[in-house]
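Fold Annotation — chain and its backbone
Encoding — discrete vocabulary of local shapes
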Amino acid sequence: MSDFFPADTSRKSLLESQKLVARMAIEKDDFGELTLIGGVDQAFVDNNIISAIIIMDYVSLEVKERVYSIQTVNYPYIPTFLSFREGPVIVNTFKKLNMLPDILMVDGAGINHPRRAGIATHIGVALDVPTIGITKKILCGSGEEPTVIGESTPLFFEGRNVGWLIKSNARSRPIIIAPGHRVSLDSSISIVKACLRGHKLPEPIRLTHNYVNEIKQSIA
């Protein structure tokens, strides 16, 4: 795990870690039958970071388990290096689970990252779990915005399809979906579509976002 979250936080060391993540990332389907799906999200209180994970039934989207962890923030916010700020607490929270997800949705980029090592990919490789990244804004690349609810369009970066923009409801701008690890481009969008229930975000991320903010309010 130290290779993925090195104690040496020099830019050179972190770039080497991201290169390792990108090399190890699997961009094709490598998971079995989908039974449980998870969502992970973070919130901040003072100098603490809260990470929460919700596990749900993939078909009914019934919540099966909720866990969270709180740790001191040990790394500043630097664009494209989010994994080193939020990754360690996600790993610790994941270790608390009694029920492991077949796929974990992560609030953050996947392969749609300048070095193909967004936090969804980083966490997926570090934990060896299939992941999908969900963001509200494009980190890198470009694509035509879909205008019809349920429509998705490809996101391109440096000539490669690295994800999707999807119009998830009438009131919101499209969200961005990308494979993280052990999930293909096609499966990433079909799985997210299966988890949409009329809100901007798919249910695993939406409910985890609500949960982590409940925790934040209770301790703030």
Notes: DSSP finds five helices and eight strands in the chain. The chain has a mean pLDDT of 96. The helical segments are 11-24, 82-94, 119-127, 185-194, 203-219. The two ends are 31 Å apart (CA to CA).
